[in-house]
User: Fold this.
Amino acid sequence: MELKQIFEVQRNFDRRVGWNRYEKCNTPEEIVDFMKHFVIVMVEELGEISRIRKEFERDKKSFEIRSLRHELVDIFVYLMQGCVALNMDLEEEYLRKLRHNVERFSSQHSQQREQSI
Assistant:
């Protein structure tokens, strides 16, 4: 399944269960208000990952990889919702960012290599 299809599947699910508040972001105020929610849920999910790590390292509890996968998928779902709220094509923006990073870091890497010679 392609990324655009995954977005559409999620959007249809969110509409059915009433979680599509992000689709109603038409003004800067509505976008900022949604982003407040977005930040909170993202921090909560990252907190779940941190809790799993802490319980493993500090408390010596075992964990299953699927727990981490579950939390990462939750983050992905919220990321998709944030992208829709911003009317953002994630694939296009990612490729633009990748090109920028390739240019930026390839030249930095080359400069560092030349300086070390």
